[in-house]
Amino acid sequence: MSSSTTLFSNISSNSTSLFSDKCTLTVLTVSFLLVLLVMKETGVLKFLQNSKLSLPPGPPKEPILGHLRVMPSENQSDVFHEWAKVYGDVIGLQFLGRNIIVLDSFQPAKELLDNRGLYYSCRPNFVVYELMGISPVLTFLRYGTKEFFKHRKIFQSFFGKRESAEYIPTQAEYAKILAGNLIRDPQQYVWYLEKFTTSVIIRISSGYQVIEDDDMYIKIAHEYSKKLNDSGSPGNTPVDYFPWLRYLPSWFPGTFYAFHARSAYKMMRQEFDVPVEYVQRQMANGTAQPSFLLYLLEGLNRRLEDIEDPLKKQTLYREELLHIAGAAGTVYSAGGETAYATLQTFILSMTLYPEVQRSAQEEIDRVFGVYDNGVSRLPEIEDRENLPFVECVLQELFRWHPAVPLGVPHRSTSDDVYNGMSIPKGSIIFSNIRGMSLDERIYSDPDSFNPMRFMPKEKGGKEEPYFAARWGFGRRICPGRYLAETQLWLAIATILATLNIRKTRDENGKEIEPEVKFTDGLVR
């Protein structure tokens, strides 16, 4: 008991509470007491008190406040993983009438989110994202709704494994452009990585071709990413837990994220509306290129032709256009943002682990041959199976620092029991992807970037499994995973075939060791 208390104290002192403001705590505590009163009058409290099963174990909690004051607002995935070392792979947290379940290893996540997906595929309220204008998007839609199935059908028909193969020539083209930009101006590598991911996604979604470095779409993607990562953990801010805070003035405790969301609304909507407006103009001019948006807008126009009532036609147009913009915005933001983050991690890993870079380049040289100090040709997607170590580099990128460390939270829609532990209906479920990537029972020396961990033993590897949690779980698994994985492989293989990535040097010629530090937000 003493050792766990000490560790918990250390963890708490190194993390900032989600509700650290004293005034905010007072307001929320009063609100919680009112909730308790309602629960008592309706009999809900008595039902809970009579429950024989307890929540999964977790850190010590305070009366009334529960875990409110220890709930981290920063580096949540890392804090949760440290807690899991003490309290187990499934952690239970409570505060202000809320139940939070953290799944820190792959097995319970698979059993609950995959095998019992019918009850764990819904989402909590994302009030902050709604205020920002990020709606409706498949990532955050409630499971089982008409809108959810509509959006999922759209993505399955456009980004399945077979359908995604049609975009490979576009992805390969832009991978070569990326390598050329990095050769020409390596100091701007971060900007060119973002240009690459944005160019591919906007070409697929709207047919638009990014050419200039200061293209409007790159600026929109950059600002969108910044605003999104400044908006707190998804579904896990005071405003998400207490939606009525959105109606209060900005000086009121706990309203920061509502104010941030409203101020970002106009900018965030550009990610959804600008591509739609572009394709509509191209359609009017007869110059629209084949794209995700063109397909959806043409389908809408055909439906409108069959409606004679002007009012009904106008209503359908407005409703469907909102969903079309939401679907396109999902492609634009989710497809570009996670790939951009992963490529930044790739550059970092090659800088810190030059021996890995050399091994990958030696494999490429063996497969393609070297001509005039360069490979005879650039890698194509058909070469993927002949470059097993390059494949392991990609898979290790997914594991080493996952782009979405906590995933997107799920919400349980039914009371459930797991290994003798109660998971009440309405619980918010966090799959700690980052924690799973550090599981020492599966991955040896998990903090190190080591692609050889996946290689067969006869080739000197350890035959550890690929990181299965990389795309999420169950019925909320990433619908664009085939598109994203191909795009990342092409970019990584092309960079390795054409460039050497090294640490920069100071004025004295000494190598500068880069700091390994990641942003905190939905995308890491």
UniProtKB/TrEMBL annotation:
Q: Name one Pfam family in it.
A: p450
Question: Recorded GO terms, molecular function?
Answer: heme binding; iron ion binding; monooxygenase activity; oxidoreductase activity, acting on paired donors, with incorporation or reduction of molecular oxygen
Keyword presence, Heme:
yes
Q: Which cofactors does this protein require?
A: heme
Which pathway is recorded for this entry?
Answer: Secondary metabolite biosynthesis
Which family, according to UniProt?
A: Belongs to the cytochrome P450 family.
**Protein known as:** Cytochrome P450
State the organism named in the record: Dendrothele bispora (strain CBS 962.96)
Q: What is the lineage of its organism?
A: Eukaryota, Fungi, Dikarya, Basidiomycota, Agaricomycotina
